[in-house]
Give the backbone structure.
Amino acid sequence: EVKLLESGGGLVQPGGSLRLSCAASGFPFTDFYMSWFRQPAGKAPEWLGFIRNKAHGYTTGYNPSVEGRFTISRHDTQDMLYLQMNTLRTEDTATYYCARGTFGRAGFAYWGQGTLVTVSS
Amino acid sequence: DTVLTQSPALAVFPGERITISCRASESVSVGIYWYQQKRGQQPNLLIYGASSLVSGVPARFSGSGSGTDFNLTIDPVEADDTAIYYCHQSWNDPLTFGSGTKLEIK
């Protein structure tokens, strides 16, 4: 059974940093592209970016809305995905999800349960 | 960015046939996906490639369209279908979502 479990959310002050983790199990993690999304309360999800698999050089792509502040990485031997978030703003407050693409970076059939990040002073 | 426009809300009775529309600001070919999100849960993929049903999703759900105009049809609607439905495109960068259509079952 495919499982994704995010952790690392919490309360952080504006300008601060936070690293989210996503533990994957139940599938060959190294074979798949992985993505991060966020969803502010009452709003639609927003795609943040993705990281390709080993076969495609672990290259990344980002939404311009977060490029330069957010960095996605992965550790395949531990089946872990990460989202490093820097210079956080109040508008970054949201539930953050990791997800596995079925067709490269598209078709997200598997999502974690989400972790809440609150940016507030 | 590619903007996806959805109608905001629908309220219907069980047994009815409904269509939720999604219009893209530019062509997305068939790179449209439909998600169902129930309160407090993560999104659940229903349709991929505009019209292909995800394994395990009831055949009451179907998708159609290409280019800029897409539809999600539920026939017949059941009480358990109460949720927000999002269209999502993966054809153009960055990937984007519609604002969602809230479906209420009377």
About this structure: The interface with chain B takes residues 43-47, 61-65, 97, 102-103, 105-109, 111-114 of chain A (CB under 8 Å). The mean pLDDT of chain A is 96. The radius of gyration of chain A is 13 Å. The longest strand of chain A covers residues 94-103.
